[in-house]
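Reading is simple: the token line describes the chain's fold. The lines below illustrate.

. . .
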Amino acid sequence: MNEQSLANAPSYEDNGPHADGRSPATEPPYPTDLPPAPSPSPTSAARRRWARLCRAAEHHGPVLALYGALKLIGFCVFMYLLDSSGDFRKKDPRFGGGAHAWDVLATWDGWWYQQIAAHGYHPALVPVPGAGGLITIEGNSAAFFPLYPALMRLVSSCTGLGLFGAGLLVSVVASFVAALAIHAVTARIGGRRAGLAAAGLWAVWPGSGMEWSAYSESLYVALAAWACYAVMRHHWITAGILTCATGLTRPTATALIAALAVAALLAVHRQRREVRRWGDAPGPDGKRRRVEFLRPLIAVAIAPLGLFGYLGWVGYRMDDYSGYFKLQEGAWAHTFDYGKHTLDVFTSLPVGHFDYLFAYPYEDLIGVGTVLLALIVLPLLLRLRPPAVLVVHTFLTIALVLGSQQIFGNISRYLLPAFPLFIPCAVAMRRLSTPVLCTVLGIAALASGSYAGYALFELGVP
């Protein structure tokens, strides 16, 4: 080794241990007395929260504003028509009457929901003495599902509002949640502008007068629409829980349960086919392909628990596991007749005959128009090739409604859960400029006070 190499060699003369036990050879080559990294200040965290809030307002604000404005227009027209006619003052407060126009919003089914919220359930099949017609059993609160009155009571306890006010608050809030969900579902198919138009259609569609009343339609549509959106995003557990909640809201949940099951099975089949074709090779996202069957199947298992659980509980309390259906048929003449009653209405109305069951001419004409509109829009929906969950849910909802014996005029509200029917109309309306779109929907909102509100509550039986 030459002298130059020895001169450049490191020196180990001071490698003895320091007082604290460390060796100089192990000392870090940087200062150790630097201050710790500063933690995020409360100001920066607040700014981030404010930025997120601004983005959310920018995204959801137009939807909520459009829906709220249109609904308020229709609601004001509805209240004006009620007050100007004054017929509600002559009716029983339980059956479409009251001291004020807004009292009408909590009559009929709304009265039953208030009774459940106040006193709970007492399921029973009590025969009407000497009855020999359609109505053979006394009406009982067990015919009405529990989630809406439970929320009504919860909100009343938390806010101090009466049950009427609490029920309206639940319905109004749920209607805005439903508008956001309908926008989200439609936007995934036709873009954000189509989603905005769909939210506007939700405010003016036939039957939309029920959205701001003490009825469960708004709550059901909010849950069902978000459940469909969760399926479209493959959030299976969320979809299963939401579908379970719809089963505690309305019996129409049968259609959504079947739709979720079909979508889940198709998703599992599609994944298995991809695995068979590509093996275990990583996909475009870098993850290895595997059949994700557990979450969809868990969703399918969760979905019917609400509906079956409530029907089973009612049957247990009545000592008759078909008790719910006997109550619907005997107390409300509501049964599945495979479309016989619907056919009777469609063959009577065109010739001006009103001798069919539960005839309310003006309300029934709106119901016929709603059915024809649904049948026209349905092929247009299929042309867009929407996800299976939307197709199955829409078809089964329409089939359940048209296949049942009931007050036909109520079809306009019974078809509200078939919200995918809004999608093809909204996709066509997205081409309109904003002023034209608002004008069209605004005119429909003015008219909706009559055809979607007054006709249901005053000229028929909601």
The chain has 18 helices and two strands.
